[in-house]
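Model: You mentioned two targets. I'll fold them one after the other.
Researcher: Yes, keep them separate.
Model: Target one:
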Amino acid sequence: MIVESPAKAKTISQYLGPNYVILASFGHVRDLPERTLGIDIQSTGSSRSTFTPKYSVMKDKAQVIKKLKDASKTAPTIYLATDPDREGEAIAWHIKEALNAPASKIRRVVFNEITKTAVQNAIGNARDINSHLVDAQQARRVVDRLIGYKLSPILSKKIRKGLSAGRVQSVAVKLICERELAIRAFIPQEYWVVSVDLDKQDYRLVAKLVAEGSPDRKCELGTESAASEMVTRLEQSQYHVLSIKKTKQKRNPYPPFITSTLQQDASRKLGWSAKKTMMVAQKLYEGVQIGADTIGLITYMRTDSFRVSEDALQSVRQHINDVYGPNYLPNSPNRYKTKGSAQDAHEAIRPTYLDRSPKALEAALPLDQLKLYRLIWDRFVASQMKPCEIENTAVIIEASLANHPSLYLKLTGHVVLFDGFSAVYMEGKDQDDEEESRRLPPLAEKDPLTLASVNAQQKFTQPPSRYTEATLVKELEESGIGRPSTYAPTLSTIVDRGYVEKEKKSLLPTDLGMITNEKLQEFFSGIIDIHFTAGMETRLDEIMDGKHEWGDVVGDIYHPLSEMLEKAQVGMTKVNTDRPSDEVCPKCGSSMAIKAGRFGDFLACTNYPECKTTRSMAAKLEVPCPSCGSDILERKSKRGKLFYGCSGYPACTFASWDRLISGECASCKNPYLVIKKGKGNDQTICPSCHTPA
């Protein structure tokens, strides 16, 4: 049996007998070549073409394939147990092609959870590789390669070397840039809020002015003078309760997590990136060590379906009845409708074992895994509980003053009559509520109230909020852009490529992101477009259903793309992204400009090519290079990770992930020390003998 990861292999090996050998492919084993297009495009006339991908075994997978081939020679059956989605189906197909084993020996098995029952059932229901799923993934890969490899060279030539574009990533950048433009164009409008503090026996009530003349005539205050006039009137008024309206409301439980909602709530509640959420979820799915066993604790974490197996429903209902009592259990299981665009290939994200509660696993799980497992557990349990019942109360207070129309104030409160699912779980919010609902004292119509104070507060209308990872994932999902497997890598890519930067939780476009988006919209608006990208996802789903030939779908995109490329080659003007600086070239006296390079910003003489002087802007450490004595500079890797490298590169290749500091090792006399980052406190050690300083 071949799976993707060693962790998954380790977990499954416990469920199958000695007649099975479980091996890992470590993900994809074949792909398109890195440095060439790798697609043979042949015109067939009538604006149609064929697209033949040129796959090859990836360089770092040659030994993996050899090991799989050797093990497969004597095996009567080869089970391909890669992930249960179209990407997993494609990996299985590529493994089959790379092994070149007889088709009669190869069987495809899929399971949504790594449990003994699920794995054994999958083997009992083994099938052939689904060619439609493979075709859908192949279409996506070819389209993304065509867009990326055709657009990226133009961006590199016209804007900045090394830039790239992508079908989904560029739309994500477009959304962030458009939001930023809306924020910049927003003109705040002044308004005033007048509130009154009132006493009712031992209670202090805070009511807001809402109407004048009658309760339904809204009172809007746009200036300080208008607010001051109302304050004066309210200070002289008499107050009584005009009306009390109580309404009962039911709040239904949230459905179990799918990929997008898991990423959103982990962002809101745990402050995690989508990438981190999926990394931790992957470990929970593939299996974690609990005692002597390796156990998969959650179902597959890339899903857009709310479906839950009947066995799991019965287990969670029994858990609710035992722990919370029958009053919290609905008469029948709660069913949630999956969106029409969802693949519905597997279940929602849920715990695999209801007898393994987060509380019981506190000692066994690392903190991050425990946090996410508890989030998934609570959401799933809450999804099968009764609604929360609330009584909302709205009180209208009349302020009377002789010879003036009455003023009307409003205060609200609520009482939880039955907590239902909220006893277990409440979804996080992207923004805090402006005011909290409160419990009100006993009130009756015509009750007099005593004035304590009147307050007026100036406010301004606010622009739309910048996207966070949570709100961007929500926007992408609601717009039908991307699929569960694409959200996390898309967010990582747009930050790593320098199009977007994170400020606390907000996503801000960089100048580079704004310029790139502007040029893409000028010449490629038909491709870098929300509706196009969403429509592409729909067509991929239709390929999965056998409704389209994948080559036809690619062709429908390639031909208009070719026309756009021809226009851009001629019409796109070169953009100067250099920034001025106060520095003067030490060689020729010309001004120096700030340029963006592979390892961060650097200074370069504006008199280039006559003068080729450059200077790094990276921070310099006090410790000289141990190899050549040159300066050690802070640098960033291709993935944005900070490291420390010699300024003499490439002549000197010294580099360290750990920060170098002055000091001599007491044990081996090494002339410098490093700061080793840890989960708790950082530690200063000798890099040579690893002795703590």
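Model: Target two:
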Amino acid sequence: MSRSLSLLRFASLVLCLCAVGISIWVHITQIQRVETVTRLPTPSGVATEVSGRSPTGYADGQRRLILAARNVDSFHWVMQAQQMFERHEWRVRHVDYDNAPEGREVSTPSPYRWWLGLIVWIDHVISHRSLGLATEQAMVWGGPTLQMLALVGAAVFVAWRFGFFAATLVSLGVAGWFPFNEYFHAALPDDHGLANLCAFGGIVLLLTGIAARSRERGGAARPWFALAGVMSAIAAWVSLSIEIPILVGTGSGALAGAWLTRERKGVASPIKIAALPWRTWALSCAVTAIAAYVIEYYAHLDLIKNLSVLDPGLNATRLSALTENGDAPNFASWIFRVGFSSTVVATALPLLVILLCLVLTFRLAATNPKRRMLAIALGPAAVAAVFAFFRLEWWGTLDAVTLALVVAASANPDAHRQTSPEIPGTKIASPQERFLPDYILFSTILLIVVGTSAVYGVLRILPRWSGPARVLSLSGPEAELWVERDVAGWLRQRADGEIRVFAPPATTLSLCYFGGFNGIGTLSPDNQSGITGSIRISTATSDEEAHALIEARGVTHIVLPSWDSFFLEYIQSSFSRPEAAFINRLENGNVPLWLRPIAYPNPNLPGFENQMVRVYAVVAEQKETVASSRLAEYWLEIGDLEKAGAAEVKLRRFPSDVGALVARARVCLERGESDELSKTFDRLLARLALGGDGMLPWDRRVSLAILLARGKRIDLAREQLRRCFAEVDRLKLQSLPTAELYNFLGLGRALGLSLADPSLQTTALALLPPHSRSRLEQSP
């Protein structure tokens, strides 16, 4: 028996070490993937410069790290952690990047920010990086570090108090159970992982007290019950919405345990459930919870009213941030959407564990202390299972509390051995009664279920590479974030001063993150005002109303990516006249005079060919001829010849305006309409001979010079271009579309003209993508 026990302990130790090793390998692979994606060069050639004076570590408050998935909370954790160090705020209660121009309150608790702050400080001390750059590293390592500490700590503690077999199962579960393990993904900070670990710890400490009470006299249980109360209160501090149902389940389990282990005729329960120090547990939990909320909100007690226990969070309809097709109102709808797949099976495996433990509970003798432990652990598991069927985000919590149930089910029977009877003369269960004949079979099944779920979870969370050469293939969210990072840098390069963006909520959040901008309607329970303001703008029924709302918010740019259809979907589902909504009119090409479209050069990314980003600058109201001319050339810049042709037809209303004639001629040239081009070009030359270009805006004069050069009128082109070079400044260069800027500089070089100011030359070249810059520098 001794040799068999030694072999079992050795096998358990090997499995625990394997779980640790595999978890380390998975996280290293994840980090390599994140770093590879982050290092990808930007398609527009914008370089993010490191700056030790910036709170983000990069110039102008920009950020480079591309998160592993589009998780709303992760962006907020990064920005708020950096603000914590920038402003020396150990509690972040207000942010400015959201709900522009006044910002908004922050009611999210601080423990997870403190955890990230600890990783930041350690990295800063060791690497001597700035706090901003150290924060970027903390976002990569924060989740993996937390999981590794939890894995090792839980394995050691459970092995000490419950045996090696229980420690093995817990190690496998913490390392691989899906979707629980996705809370600890590299570069995806999420407080759900910390909240669920604390909930797991609170239940396990409670079980430890019960086991201690079974082995020894009453005083041994009290410290464990006190620690369990403290841990449960910390879990409630991190996430009240998760822990309150768990506490309700724990209480229900305690009542069920009291009923299942009640005294029967001739046989007394060795330990009455009422004899457990529940008052100690409740008091320590209450005192810790009160202290935590006083610490968190002592100067902002009004924020507590925003903390609703049962209201679903932003991720309530998502199984996890990394799960594709993971959005559904409930579990049944999700199964209907994705079909019966391995992901569904792996997700639902904890239900099989709960069922097995329920059968074991009723097969155990009433005098067996394990029956009481199982009953108490089944309570929170049952409550979590009910919540999981109605909210997908609860499946990770179900994994955590089911792991605590696994501890109770797989605990070494010696952990419950009673050294002396509680009630003299009562009958104590014999060893044969304590050990079920099929206990080995049950343990084997439990190991298979836990191990299978862990293997699937590990395989699922590993980053995917294409082919044996491990070629990088961006996922949909990665591609979107990569492009949005480029849009943010490209826009930052073309605008001076503060930038306030109006965009769909998810895009607003990523632009604020990457560009250091201010936004209006990012998704957050604390930003109801910003979301309401964004919806009011998007549904405005007139350009005047939209302009007034945008001016009130101080918006400088509107960004509308084709992959983020939040506004369009909302308008279609909730607005009585969707065609009259401001965003719909803008999508259909009806651009008001106070908006100037800016052509963003869409990246050549496989699978992204049909996607585009529309960017508009909020400007002083333009003359209709100027606005219409710019709009026509905007359609040309982005390659939409059909809309460019429609714009050319509208420009025929201005037959004597030089700017309109330039735009019309360029459209005809690109569309191959030679007859119309010839007539328009002749009319343009006639107007120039009469001095019709006198009041031409600078960018329209650049367009005129390029058109004259393409029309072989080099003498006139040189004259116009000389005026352009004489009047140029930084803002004018920034206003030119990319292709227009390249042609402007190239034509100037061909005609012997250049920017006299070296700083302007540097600015102009920096605005070009690398391939255009290289061609220009190599041209004679």
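Researcher: Noted. Anything on target two?
Model: Residues 2-38 form the longest helix (37 residues).
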